[in-house]
Records
---
Amino acid sequence: MDCPLVFHGTAIHSVGLEQLEILENAALVIDTDGRISAFHKNIAHDDAALRVPGARLHRLRRGDFLVPGFVDTHNHAPQWSMRGLGQGLHILDWLDRVTFPHEARFADPAYARRVYESCVDGFLRQGVTTASYYGSRHSEATQILADVCKAKGQRAFVGKCNMDRNAPYYLRDESAESSLRETEECVRHIKSIDPEGVLVRPVITPRFAICCTPELLKGLGEIAARDPQLAIQTHFHEAEQEINATKELFPGFKSEADLYESYGLMSTRSILAHCTFMNDYDMERVQSLGCGVAHCPISNMTVGGGFMTAPIRQFLRRDIKVGLGTDSGGGFSSSILDNIRLAVIASNAQEVTSKGADKALSLEEVFYLATLGGARVCCLEDEIGNFEVGKQFDAIWVTTEPNEAMTVPEAEDSTRTIFEKFIMTGDDRNMSRVYVKGRLVKGC
Ligand code: GUN
Ligand code: FE
């Protein structure tokens, strides 16, 4: 950035699962490195602290506010161009009939670049400042995805999807050995374009155990063990069809937790997508191994999770890390706001089916999942997720001038009411500017 930034006006962020801080006269100072160097929580518009030498001062009008950027903990970049297709199919049928033939197209680098540019633009427009991406199984396309994230300024984890069996011959990895070699190639490339991992980082991405031979899982665990910084992501206890097929392939394991753990793929750096069908044992393992959950409320009820939801209240009670995922492709929406709403609805249903034992999620809690909770899942809570001093400035400037969707703010509304209207009815038209690490990635 060419100069420091100062914002004065309303800032809203989570400081805990249920603690939403709403500050109507806040000031945030962002240094040229994109970090928050000061956060004044109550300051007058003419306070001397707003006069930072050389800085550009932005004053938010009443009704506008800053929130931290959204974190999408589970996203399939190649599925950007097939969102919404095959929504009633069970997971393995959907993969065979819709997804695998589509992902095969990413053998073509020109097609991959076109889709990935549109995908990253699309997510930034929706305020997704951090995404954990599965690529396709192709090394070149995956490297292009990382290049596109870096160029457009999105914070991202990018992984070559590993799959050396139970997929069509024209898509799957030729062998475990070639899959591992290409994975290391992708990790090297991503580290070469962003050596400090400031924006873009590699992530080990076995699609799920059904698509990976034991040899491949073992090799991926060894890569992860050699590099303690590497994140890991996979699909986990997603749907009955998937769980049964996994048991048939790996009869020696009573839970997917044991299976992935035995290959060294369950750690504090693991992002487990879905976690819908989870018994006490599975939850205990995920909790004690410190893995994070990517809750994908839309795809859980359309394709990915077997038309189910995940026991989020139980995860939170155990202090398991939980964030939200669009699972774009499996889910039809690329919007975290849509997923926030479905997370509320799914939790309402769960309150009923648990006879009141698992209380529905509050607005404060679902907003936390979309921001600070997601940051924890990605082990980035020291870097992003809220506006603490020292963190990087990933933020959405929300403009609540009504569009056709958003409930009109009224003069007597409290700031919390306007925030609630935005969360429950707003969309990307209410996101006038988006910043990642202080850089403007949407708006002007
Ligand atoms: N399980 C294995 N692959 C996929 C995928 O692409 N999407 C979802 N939702 N689940 C999967
Ligand atoms: Fe998925």
---
Amino acid sequence: MAATGVRLDLDGRPIKPMTICMIGAGGFIGSHLCEKVLFETPHKILALDVYNDKIKHLLEPETQTWADRIQFHRINIKHDSRLEGLIKMADLTINLAAICTPADYNTRPLDTIYSNFIDALPVVKYCSENNKRLIHFSTCEVYGKTIGSFLPKDSPLRQDPSYYVLNENTSPCIFGSIEKQRWSYACAKQLIERLIYAEGAENGLEFTIVRPFNWIGPRMDFIPGIDGPSEGVPRVLACFSNNLLRRQPLKLVDGGQSQRTFVYIKDAIEAVLLMIENSARANGHIFNVGNPHNEVTVQQLAEMMTEVYSKVSGEPPLESPTIDVSSKEFYGEGYDDSDKRIPDMTIINRQLGWNPKTSLWDLLESTLTYQHRTYAEAVKQAISKPVAN
Ligand code: NAD
Ligand code: UDP
């Protein structure tokens, strides 16, 4: 499993083993990135997070061949003086830490802005001052709404890709009004992108910015009441998985007509590894990372997940598998939505030659097989427990 032999970059140069300071390593993307780095490269990881449940299998037992290449540091980057020292010890810092679930953007806007902007400031500063390379995770949400969404419903221009395909260098960032607090996240991410870009321009910071477009797969978020709070609202994959596991209808927010493109986490992680190991091609760039071929409305996603889950669990679907719910009821005041998110892949193709491979059906099949295997029994037990008076 560990890397053997000399690894070459895209230009045929040997890749030197490096130490990576990975902040937010215990989250969904971090856990997959840790696996990739440990299993397929000789690089070392300083893994920073407040939690480590999703990377426990990599930290123990200590006899694993990769054990000396990962070190976990339980650190809250809001207030921990060890942060600068760890960034200094590494060749590269990858910052994944963030509050990044839509249910928080309008209900906890201050925490969202602090987490996505203020808390990232020292990371950028320490990288810049110590001449360390930074890969920072932003979001496709910085694009906000498409230009096409402002056209009349029957306008033929809505079919023209230049009105909806999102390009790193040419698309504008269009957010709703300030009272639509949904955009607190996108706005904070946009400002940290601008700050990083300015550090590059004025002080020579070597940076890469990643804009993930709905990466999904095993270990994403939590199942409410099983490995997360009962009242918690995770992102759509976990919400719908939870409904399927509990044999409840899937809730379509405002009719489920928003569109998304979903990419399999394992495809997306390949792109991140290319960025890590090809600094000359990745530095100074902002990259969309998504799968333009996997576009569906949320309603279509619900229908496909219902069909796939029935196949992997052997349980027949409900007679009415979905139910409509208003965004106000589901998310509360101040929610708003991105209408459509198709990534332009020109830049990542040109710089790194990366393309996603996995179809939506295939990625849902492997992900829902994991969800069923991991949670079905626990959910069954939780449902059968008598409710306390
Ligand atoms: P996640 O919530 O699973 O992971 C984030 C991790 O950061 C968590 O483990 C959390 O404990 C940690 N963290 C948060 N604040 C911290 C702090 N103050 N100190 C230390 N650790 C802290 O989310 P994810 O899906 O893995 O996302 C990672 C990054 O990618 C985020 O920046 C997110 O905005 C971005 N992103 C992800 C997606 C996606 O499709 N998954 C889409 C857009 C953007
Ligand atoms: N959504 C939904 N039902 C749910 C959860 C989410 O209809 O139970 C919708 C949500 O309104 C949005 C889309 O699914 O239009 C994707 O939501 P997600 O939480 O994954 O984050 P986003 O893509 O908006 O960042």
